[in-house]
Amino acid sequence: MPKKVVLLGATGSIGSSTLDVIRRFPEEFVLIGLSGHSQTEKIKNLVDEFSPPVVCLPEVPSWAHEYPRTTFLSGERGLSQLASLPDADMVVIGVAGLAGLLPTIEAIKAKKHLLSANKEAIVAAGPLINHLLDENTQQIIPLDSEHNAIFTLICRFPTPHIKKIILTASGGPFFRRAPTAQTTVQEVLTHPTWSMGSYITVNSATMLNKGFEVIEAHYLFRLPFEQIEVLIHPQSIVHGMVELTDNTHIMVASPSDMRYPIAMAMFYPSLPPSGDSSFTLPGKSLEFHPVPHERFPLLSLAYETGRLGGLFPLALNALNEEIVSAFLKGKIHFLDIERLIITGIERFASTEESRLPLSFESLAPAEAKARGIAFELLGEHSHDV
Ligand code: NAD
Ligand code: MG
Description:
- The chain is an alpha/beta fold.
- It folds into three domains: about 5-115, Rossmann fold, CATH 3.40.50; about 145-295, no CATH class; about 310-385, Rna Polymerase Sigma Factor, Chain: A.
- The chain has helices at about 15-25, 40-50, 75-85, 100-110, 120-135, 145-155, 185-190, 200-205, 210-220, 260-265, 295-310, 310-330, 335-350, 360-385; strands at about 5-10, 30-35, 55, 70-75, 90-95, 115, 140, 160-170, 230, 240-245, 250-255, 290.
- It has a seven-stranded parallel sheet, sandwiched between helices. Strands 11-10-8-9-12 form a five-stranded mixed sheet, with helices on one face.
- The chain starts with a strand and ends with a helix.
- About 45% of the residues are buried.
- The structure holds nicotinamide-adenine-dinucleotide and magnesium ion.
């Protein structure tokens, strides 16, 4: 019997890769529910292709009557219902941003086999999610390529034998040459190895994406920050490694294609039966470099905010979302991103919200405060220029 899969965020980049895995292994997986947020036409095409019994959109679409055998859910409540669908064997969260948090919680409470790429929820609310996972004796299988690699390794090499885990980073477009005042949005969006959405591609260029991944790893694998290292690996073939107590390094290598970690996670604890046979190692050189931290101050800031814990990681995420969005709209320069985020975190640290204990109730006020600070900074910036 194929496993029944619910996919949240089916129209996005992670969603498309997950659908490809389902298409490739129709005897193993069947899609029984999907969600999308804005691309209604794309969702309609997916309903035509997969005939899922349940679909969730922000609102029930005008064409819903054309599909009498499909139940249409809507809004946040619909997304939570979809994440805890009684029939589902597996829930895949490919939603971007904090909108992924509520469905993550619902899927854990419903004891679903949970696969998630949604790093924002884990970064913002890691301790709350871990508490829920423990209460429900559940786990999250990570889809993010680095975390998926580490997850695979930790299954074989338990944490007492691990000296540290190493997340690799391509270094983005500005590892070998620094950005300048002339750097354009297009240059920033030209990622050397991965093809991803524009927000995450900008975060790769500042290396804050790797910073978020360090925080994500801290919560997912419950390791202190001292045991989480980042190395630049421009080829993006090795995604993660563990250094054991005897200094042996064990690595996971695969093409830079999200369908690999997604298939690994979907087949877990089994293994995918096939992949891309053209992927071979002869002729490839693998380089590893220390991170030039002075070049990427947002990576250091992520370690700092991760260590501060509480609502700081959430604030870092919210500030970054607003400031990167301003960059993508051409309102600020690439070099302004770092400066505004560093100032933003300093401002957040002086607010009452930053001192609230982390709880489901304190997330919304802290997020609003951080976004407010971002708007203030962007307003001040537009007066400066
Ligand atoms: P994307 O922007 O391509 O897709 C996001 C999906 O979420 C879309 O289906 C969209 O409809 C949905 N969505 C957006 N806002 C929503 C809201 N408010 N409510 C409900 N649904 C909403 O993003 P992506 O690149 O696929 O990334 C998804 C997640 O995976 C992010 O957390 C990202 O950090 C993580 N991730 C992505 C990659 C990658 O290669 N793209 C790699 C690792 C991790
Ligand atoms: Mg990643």
